[in-house]
Amino acid sequence: MLPEPAEWFSTWFDSPYYHRLYQSRDYAEAQEFLGRLLAHLHPKSGARLLDLACGKGRHARYLSEQGFEVTGVDLSPQSIGAARQFAHELLHFQVHDMRDPLPYGPFDLVLNLFTSFGYFQQEAENVVALRNAAAVVRPGGKLVIDFLNTEQAVRTLVAHETKTVDGTDFYLYRHFNNDFIVKEIRFRDDEGQEQCFEERVRALTQERFEEYFRMAGLRLAEVLGDYQLRPFDPATSPRMIFVLKK
To answer: Which residues form a coiled coil (predicted)?
Structure first.
């Protein structure tokens, strides 16, 4: 019996080339967004926060600096290994797959940011992950899911582009396939070997998310449309930022 193929995120997120390709992401803009979001949600000083799919912990560190007790979890051992150098008494990092029940909590606020959802091949796994997140939200607490506006993303998909980062030419090919937005990433590694990775995000609509929320026992409080926290407009907003209450 053949072994199951590795899930794309379990290999790509641990690759040094993933971090090379995306090293120029605008973290200043991300921190401005987090600052606005905290002001909008106004969790109490000292509140317990969960950064679900925290990567290397840059945003969890920022949240901790704002006076919150923060736990960051991610399924990438390499990312959590990098994040743990910044851990302290009120900032913790753990390797964790969101499809598994969370042994941490409860939390006043759970954050799943920058399209860190919808990666799984089986749609039911999205609901399992959401239920696990909801289970660790304190009664009266909030959960925020920040996702791309898939209808706009599919409509404006750039089929091909090339990015050169630190001497590596990355060839990016995007298409829509079987309910997923797919990005194929091709490049030669530092040894000259050809490499190919994929990113796959399920094209979840607002209506599908709302169905998930009902199944997870969450109440949708509002939908924001961008990192300036303007109201969501399906035709023009780049993001769908769901604010949920338990």
So the answer is: none
Q: What would you report as the CA-atom Rg of the chain, rounded to the nearest whole angstrom?
A: 18
> In which residue are the tokens 């070997």 written?
193
The number of residues in the chain equals 246
pTM: 0.92
Give domain limits for the chain. 8-149+204-245, 153-199
Positive or negative: CA dihedral 113, 115, 116, 122: positive
Q: How far apart are CA 87 and CA 70, in angstroms?
A: 10
Question: Three-state DSSP class for 44?
Answer: coil
The alpha carbon dihedral of 218, 224, 226, 229 has a sign of negative
Quote the pLDDT of residue 2: 40
| 145 close to 53: Cβ distance less than 8 angstroms | no
Task: Show the DSSP H helices in 74-198 as ranges.
Answer: 77-83, 123-135, 150-155
Query: In CATH, what class is 8-149+204-245?
Result: alpha beta
Residue range 83-130, pLDDT digits in tens: 999 999 999 999 999 999 999 989 999 999 999 999 998 999 999 999
Contact yes or no for 118/201 (Cβ under 8 A): yes
For residues 132 and 98, the answer to whether their CB atoms sit within 8 Å is: yes
